Amino acid sequence: MKRKTYLLLACAAILGQARADNITVCDFEQNEIGQAFNMKDIYNTTTTSTAVVEADPANEGNKVLHVKNTSWNTFIEFELPDGVDGGNMADMYQSISFDIYRPASDQNDWMQMAVLLGNDQLYWDEGYPHQGDKETWVKKTYELKYVKNDAVRLYVGYNNNTAEYYIDNIVLSGVSKEAKDTLRWTGATSDVWDVGTTPNFATVPADGSEGEPACFANGYAVIFDDTPAATAGAGTARVVVSETVEAPSILFRNKAVDYTLTAQHPDDAITGFGKMSVEGGGTVTMDVNNNMNGGTYLHSGMIRMGNAGLQNPFGTKVEADGGALHFSLNTSDYVSVNAPIDIAEGSTLDVYTSRYTYWMSQLSGKGTLNIYAGGERSYLGNAKGAQIPDWSQFSGTVNLYPYKEVYGSAGFYGLVLGHGGKTFNPEEVEESIEAGKVNATFENKTLIMHDNTTLACESGTRGFRIGELRMAPTARLCGYYKASNPKSYYLVGCLGTDSELAGQIAPADKNGKPYESQQVGLIKEGAGTYTLTNNNNLINGGIRVLDGRLLVNNNTAEAEAYHLTGGTGYATGTTQTFVFSKATIGGNGSIAGNTDVYGTIEPGSDGTGTLTLKNFAKDEPVALYLRPTTTINMEIASADDYDRIVASGDIIYYNICEDFTESDDKPTVKLDVKDSYQYNEGDEFVLIEAKGKGSLYGDPWNFNIALPDNDKWTVEEREAEGAYRLVLTAKSPSAVKTATDTGKTRIYSANGNIYVDTEAGKRIKVYSASGQLLSETVSANGLNTISGVSGMAIVDVDGVTMKINNK
Predict the structure, then answer these.
(1) CA angle, corner 15, sides to 14 and 17, nearest 5?
(2) Cα distance between residue 14 and residue 215, in whole Å
(3) What single-letter DSSP state applies at residue 230?
């Protein structure tokens, strides 16, 4: 009996605590018809705008305020209710609501709503949103900024010089800022979290002892941990939220017990001034709306969405320095997530998307975001990609992984990028960027596509800018995710870093192969080097190298043997690859489309190699177009190790520069011959091979050849039917002579320098013509050394000791 009496008293005591709630600023029922309210022009002392109490145009028994604006920045003036002023309003009330009726005579549907406390803005619409239907009452609710001042007046209304509207039922709403005390969930009686009825909580004594049973009351903080009595040892706990419960803070400190919070009725919710925090490492499933003003703090563990119909499972915002957000549901309904997310610098947030997702969360911070994509309709945007989220304030790294655990047979696992209604022009890249006609979601961050992931987009002619893109070998970059005919362009590299695109870049598949009627293009920006290595690319929307380097390093032998599209793929009947004056193209792979170079060609990949231009998939010739500004850098290292360009089509000279001016300058071939290379008089090197040589107007032309030493080399063109060659020939033997041959090593002298070739194939300079004797270890095993002794260099190489006079 004593126990029961205590419980009743405890609940009664808690219920008696005061809390902030709703307070009416004005509903006009106490005002007389015809009474005028003051209109305040915040920049001028007078205005002709009016606000008069009249009968409701939709219900003549109700009184409302009729407003007619004649000037901008002019709003209705209201006295704050008794007990409320600029010093305490923000602590008690965090939102405002009112009803708006716009007559047919109102001239503008697109206006800004504003709310001010004295001279300080509490709310002001961004842009000019649509204000809803006319000739019907529309309820408006706005979250207010946290402002403290000495004002006693509130200003509300449309910022428009022709607005006409009726307003009614202006109400401030809020919750308590300070917690009365803290209660811990026990679930001792049932699984219901209600207000003042069921003792499913316990007090939390300061001395750490077990608290007394208690009922929850609004205004008390709540802790959920691993010791609810009703679920001891079960590992899961269900909490049914009855009506709307208000807690200034909610803390989940669970690790062993996972919690599921469920709404007893659709409108039931949790609310409060502060945050819901998840810090224990366990899972919290939200099947109830979280309307906490301070949003959600996630340190460790996982917050899961309970069902697709929830508006705020993650709260008004998410602050994360770890943990996971899980909204991957096995449902055919689209899951919408809009809560802003901030990731703390140095931390990692895991996000699990649903197969059908509209993800519009604003993202900020400098941490790492791991996206586990649950299917092929995970939009980074809303329906049809008409709007896209603002991720401009996040500058960290985004990892994209497949997530097949919820739905294992999706068409692909990745993201679909929205376009925001902007049409991209690949012929005017800079202009399109400046005009905001590209999706810039990833432009200031690194996106890493891991194996078996896909990045796709919505329809139209669209551009997508990615600061740094990396692709694993089985990743896929495609355009519109359906086999249709849009054009999609990916702008990569504006962060200026180096990257490898090992995955496939090609349109979406139809009947098991890329749908060639759709176009996917690649635009390389920035000073870094990007490398294409996939042998099945079909970048049929064209490649534009604006800056930095693009290396094509696919396996040419494999592409030829199996008739593959190679490192670039092809675009039938068009010039596919453009290399502009500030850019370089190179590599050891194959280019399957006609290539036009204003800038530089460097065969090889930071060394010597062969760059091949041929369409192996269709066995079609590929042409190389050269311009007055073209430079071809060629390196000669040995008879079997030198740069080559092999084109299955013609080499054609166009005398038109990048700025469309004409020039008589000719393409330049620069040759670099290693001074340690040994060659003989008459040795030949075929630098360029092609089907033929031509020009824009059919006029003859020659390369501008830059030789390292004109006395030692000559370059000539050799043309025959269906064959063209640019050949380098040695006019005299090299200055490199064999001084010693032990059978294991050789010592060369060249131009006064001395070199040693080791058995392992490494060549090192041991004596410089400038008189410097070099001393170094020439192999990791420590046996090959060079040192100076009594005016000599003692060289121990591969077990043989040799002496080189240091005089």
Answers:
(1) 75
(2) 8
(3) G
Q: What is the pLDDT of residue 420?
A: 87
pLDDT tens profile 432-467: 999 999 999 999 999 999 999 999 999 999 999 999
Q: What count of Cα atoms within 13 Å lies in the side-chain half-sphere of residue 24?
A: 8
Rg (CA), the chain: 37
Helix, strand, coil proportions of the chain in percent (round to 5)?
A: 5, 45, 50
Q: What is the pLDDT of residue 792?
A: 44
User: Which two three-digit tokens encode residue 637?
Assistant: 């290292």
Contacts of 199 (CB under 8 A, 6+ apart): 7, 10, 11, 188, 189, 213, 214, 215
The type of residue at 210 is E
Contacts of 430 (CB under 8 A, 6+ apart): none
Total residues found in the chain within this entry? 807
pTM: 0.78
**CA-based nearest residue to 758, from 796, 791, 706:** 796
| Burial tier of 292 (Cβ tally within 10 Å: 0-12, 13-18, 19+) | buried
**Where residue 748 falls among pLDDT bands split at 50, 70, 90?**
low
| Geometric angle at alpha carbon 276, from 273 and 279, rounded to 5° | 145
Kind of pairing between the strands at 668-673 and 631-638:
parallel
CA distances 249 to 181, 205, 278, 387, Å, are 10, 18, 11, 33
**What residues does each domain of the chain span?**
22-173, 737-805
Q: When comparing pLDDT for 749 and 13, which is higher?
A: 749
**Which of these, 431, 475, 463, 460, lies nearest to 518 by C-alpha position?**
460
Rounded CA-CA distance 334/309 in Å is 9
Strand locations in 620-774, DSSP E? 620-621, 624-626, 631-638, 641-642, 644-647, 650-653, 668-673, 684-690, 692-695, 704-706, 713-720, 723-730, 737-741, 746-750, 753-757, 763-767
What are the angstrom distances between the C-alpha of 474 and each of 134, 200, 366, 414?
Answer: 53, 52, 28, 12
Residue 459 CB: number of other CB atoms within 10 A? 18
Q: Using one digit for the tens of pLDDT, what is the confidence trace for 751-802?
A: 556 667 666 666 666 655 555 555 444 443 344 445 444 344 445 555 555 5
Domain 22-173 falls in which CATH fold? Answer: Jelly Rolls (2.60.120)
Q: Residue 422 has what DSSP assignment?
A: P
Residue 284 scores a pLDDT above 70: yes
Task: For strands 519-524 and 487-492, give the pairing.
Answer: parallel
Residue type, 501: L
In this prediction, residues 204-225 reach a mean pLDDT of 90
Q: What six digits make up the tokens of 472?
A: 């694993």
Report the distance separating Cα 273 and Cα 459, nearest Å.
43
What is the spatial distance between Cα 643 and Cα 446, in angstroms, rounded to a whole number?
A: 33
Lowest-confidence region among 9-13, 59-63, 289-293, 469-473 = 9-13
Q: DSSP letter string over 738-805?
A: EEEE-SS-EEEEETTEEEEE-TTS-EEEEE-TTSPBP--B-STTS-SEEEEETTEEEEEETTEEEEEE
Mean pLDDT across the chain, nearest whole number?
89
Does pLDDT of 137 surpass 70? yes
Number of H helices, E strands in the chain: 4, 76
Contact 163, 106 (CB under 8 A): yes
The amino acid at residue 630 is T
